[in-house]
UniProtKB/TrEMBL annotation:
Keywords: DNA-binding, Sigma factor, Transcription, Transcription regulation. This is Sigma-70 family RNA polymerase sigma factor. InterPro entries: RNA_pol_sigma-70-like (IPR039425), RNA_pol_sigma-70_dom (IPR014284), RNA_pol_sigma70_r2 (IPR007627), RNA_pol_sigma70_r4_t2 (IPR013249), RNA_pol_sigma_r2 (IPR013325), RNA_pol_sigma_r3/r4-like (IPR013324), WH-like_DNA-bd_sf (IPR036388). It comes from Rhodoplanes azumiensis. Belongs to the sigma-70 factor family. ECF subfamily. CDD domains: Sigma70_r4.
Length: 185
């Protein structure tokens, strides 16, 4: 995908400027790259390629909904592959794949590499979450980070499912505001 970086970045830039056709073309182009990425890694993890389609859709939705976080001064493909990698890891966690299921020579392709950026991002997330009231922190942690269902999170929090949903919604909104304010400093 690196060879196509200038064309993809031009589509993303046009998309961010409000060009709907460019946005559709971008998502169409990315779907092929993402499909290959997910299929290759799922096969190496001993999984079926059918799972790739769901992951492609999840990654495209994340690109679509998170496009405002993309910095046009940076390359596009590392940003897209970071999203894809996190979607893959979340999927493997949810479906209980572990490195014990993968050969040693393949494990590095499936499991996230512990890198400085990932550590820094995790620390930023923890710092931002710590600013929220504890009920919002818990709801976001259980559902969005740990992958529990709303019902499971409600049971752990001792709250209703509606309260968990409201806490997630309000917490994410507050995080978005805090991130925007921090960016403007």
């Amino acid at each position: 995908m690196i060879a196509k970086e200038p064309a993809l970045k031009a589509l993303m830039t046009a998309s961010l400027a409000g060009d709907g056709r460019a946005h559709r073309d971008l998502l169409q182009a990315l779907s092929g790259y993402l499909r290959g990425y997910f299929r290759g890694r799922l096969v190496r993890a001993g999984r079926g390629v059918a799972e790739a389609e769901d992951l492609v859709q999840e990654a495209l939705m994340a690109v679509h909904t998170g496009r405002h976080t993309y910095d046009p001064a940076e390359p596009l493909t590392p940003w897209v592959f970071a999203i894809a990698r996190y979607k893959l890891l979340d999927h493997l966690r949810r479906t209980k794949t572990s490195t014990a299921d993968v050969g040693l020579d393949q494990a590095e392709d499936v499991v996230a590499v512990d890198d400085y950026t990932g550590t820094e991002s995790a620390l930023d997330l923890r710092r931002m979450l710590s600013r929220l009231p504890s009920r919002m922190q818990q709801a976001i942690q259980f559902v969005k980070i740990d992958g529990l269902s709303v019902a499971e999170a409600a049971a752990k929090c001792g709250a209703s499912e509606s309260a968990v949903k409201v806490n997630i919604h309000r917490g994410l909104k507050a995080l978005g505001t805090a991130i925007a304010q921090e960016k403007n400093r």
